[in-house]
């Protein structure tokens, strides 16, 4: 579930149109809707996977399926995997957001709901903003951005149930997901810092390969958890969905969107995804809904909107 790199991280000349036979505007709208839907179902796919398969093996299978699909995309876009030292460093930086982030995400998926995973991942732009302001000192927040940040943090605390009388929250699972988000954000900044300026499909393929080797080295520690029988149809579909749609197709669409739309519009993906993900978890996985979760999610979305709205003038 990768989400919001800065718009200037990738040169616009790198992206080839994903759709050539329909109206460009209609294609962009379709891609936007597709990314929201794909990423809103992704946490549910992760939770369904770890219900039956150990998280390490689930990720290994997911990336094993994603690699040939990524190679197909390379062939379709007429790109080649670059093996220069700078490119290898860039792939490794991207793997922090795949191998590292996905490891903690799937570990957390054994403890928290799919809706909670999406909500925590939805705070990625806030974390990246805080890093840019306090650590990199590259930006300064305007007043409305601070209001949005405060409102989003307050909303997040409500969704976690902090301050309620009957809090039933796995803090270890939440901690895993927060670490996953921080690793994702760190990966985003690292790839930008390397500045390899390679095609996003090449970057995705290279980082996927590095991550796959990482999981391959991790498996000897979990040999006792190796699946002994074929997974159920539900788990198999969840794995295929994660590999095909979440790891490959959504990334193609997303990298195209950040070249066609302004950052405020792209930020709507982050706002809409947790809402839909919470609904899918309730409908398809019987995950509980509570008043403080709904109110907190609304406040989080409002805070993200204020934060994104004030970012728009900075991108022009």
UniProtKB/TrEMBL annotation:
Spans traversing the lipid bilayer: 32-50, 56-77, 89-109, 115-136, 148-167, 173-192, 204-223, 235-257, 264-283, 289-309
Main localization of the protein described in the UniProt heading: membrane
Extent of the signal sequence: none
Pfam families on file: EamA
SUPFAM superfamilies linked to this entry: Multidrug resistance efflux transporter EmrE
Entry keyword annotation includes Transmembrane helix: yes
Name of the protein this chain belongs to: EamA/RhaT family transporter
Keywords on record: Membrane, Transmembrane, Transmembrane helix
Any GO CC annotation of this UniProt entry: membrane
Family the UniProt entry places it in: Belongs to the EamA transporter family.
Sequence ranges assigned to domain EamA in this UniProt record: 32-160, 173-307
Membrane disposition: Multi-pass membrane protein
Source taxon at top rank: Bacteria
Places the protein is found: Membrane
């Amino acid at each position: 579930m990768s989400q919001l790199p800065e718009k200037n991280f990738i040169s616009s000349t790198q992206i080839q149109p994903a759709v050539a036979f329909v109206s460009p505007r209609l294609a962009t709208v379709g891609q936007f809707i597709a990314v929201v839907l794909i990423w809103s179902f992704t946490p549910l796919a992760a939770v369904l996977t770890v219900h039956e398969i150990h998280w390490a093996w689930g990720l290994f299978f997911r990336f094993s399926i994603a690699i040939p699909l990524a190679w197909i995309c390379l062939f379709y876009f007429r790109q080649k995997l670059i093996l220069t030292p700078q490119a290898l460093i860039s792939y490794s930086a991207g793997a922090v957001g795949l191998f590292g982030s996905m490891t903690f995400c799937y570990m957390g998926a054994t403890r928290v709901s799919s809706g909670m995973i999406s909500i925590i991942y939805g705070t990625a732009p806030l974390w990246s903003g805080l890093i840019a302001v306090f650590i990199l000192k590259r930006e300064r927040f305007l007043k409305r951005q601070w209001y949005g940040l405060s409102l989003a943090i307050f909303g997040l605390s409500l969704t976690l149930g902090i301050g309620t009388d009957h809090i039933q929250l796995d803090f270890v699972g939440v901690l895993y997901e927060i670490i996953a988000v921080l690793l994702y954000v760190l990966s985003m900044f690292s790839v930008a810092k390397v500045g390899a300026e390679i095609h996003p499909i090449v970057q995705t393929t290279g980082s996927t390969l590095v991550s796959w080797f990482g999981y391959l080295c991790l498996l000897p520690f979990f040999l006792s958890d190796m699946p002994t029988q074929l997974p159920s149809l539900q788990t198999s579909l969840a794995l295929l969905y994660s590999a095909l749609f979440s790891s490959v197709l959504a990334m193609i669409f997303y990298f195209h969107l950040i070249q066609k739309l302004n950052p405020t519009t792209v930020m709507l993906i982050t706002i809409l995804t947790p809402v839909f993900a919470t609904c899918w978890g309730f409908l398809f996985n019987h995950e509980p809904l509570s008043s403080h979760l709904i109110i907190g999610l609304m406040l989080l979305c409002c805070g993200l909107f204020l934060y994104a709205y004030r970012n728009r003038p900075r991108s022009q």
